[in-house]
Amino acid sequence: MFGITDYGAFVVAFWLFLMVPGPGNLVIATGTAQGGIRGGMAATLGVMAGDQVLIWCALGGVAALLHAYPMAFSGLQWVGAAYLAWLGIRMWRLRPQEGGAPAAPARQRPFRQGFLITLLNPKAIVFYFAFLPLFIDPVRQQGVVTFGMLAVTAAALVLLYGFIESLLVHRFAERLRASERLGRLLRKLTSLFLIGFGVRLATSS
């Protein structure tokens, strides 16, 4: 569909990526704590805007590589699958104290805070450059149509995830913070899915 090899797998894998603890989750939780659901959604829109900048930068590099070096594109797909599995292994081995969130940033406008923290995250552009090619069919890809479908889907998922996180933080913040066992279980399950996706995508590319 639209030159995407497995759209359903892209949706699930991207959702799992959103669940990985990082600056995006922190800034949405902080925005919610400071301004309620409205603050959380403002931060979510900032994260979404920053993600779109990084995604289109990554897609620009992918498009250039696909056009100039088709064989290298296949190699990039293998690298992306390995990177996805590595993320899962790293999350599995993460100790609780390592997964703790850094200190919350000072109060400021949630949108700007979300945008800048996402845009200045150096790991995100690396992830997108390795991750997105896994779902692009080099034969059936339709250029801007394929890239636009991936970008729009990513934006919709970030918006939905941010809304759910804001709602949960707003209503159950104390309970979620106290449930260390639940957090550990979710982290383990997410890591297994990431590893599984990495293996599956590597063997199917």
What structural keywords apply?
205 residues, mainly alpha, 0% strand
User: The biggest beta sheet, please?
Assistant: none
Strand % is: under 5%
- Assign a percent range to the helix content: over 70%
Class by helix and strand content? mainly alpha
Unreliable runs = 97-107
> How many helix segments?
7
List the helices and strands and how they pair.
Layout: H1 7-19, H2 23-68, H3 70-93, H4 110-119, H5 122-131, H6 144-178, H7 180-204
Helix pairs in contact: 1-6, 1-7, 2-3, 2-4, 2-5, 2-6, 3-5, 3-7
How would you describe what is shown here?
- Helices cover 80% and strands 0% of the residues.
- Helix 2 crosses helix 5 (122-131).
- Mean pLDDT is 76; it is low at 97-107.
- The two termini are 16 Å apart.
- It has helices spanning 7-19, 23-68, 70-93, 110-119, 122-131, 144-178, 180-204.
- It contains 7 helices and no strands.
- The longest helix has 46 residues, at 23-68.
- It has one domain (7-204).
- With 205 residues, the protein is mainly α.
Explain briefly what this protein structure is.
With 205 residues, the protein is mostly helical. 80% of the residues lie in helices and 0% in strands. Helix 2 (23-68) crosses helix 5 (122-131).
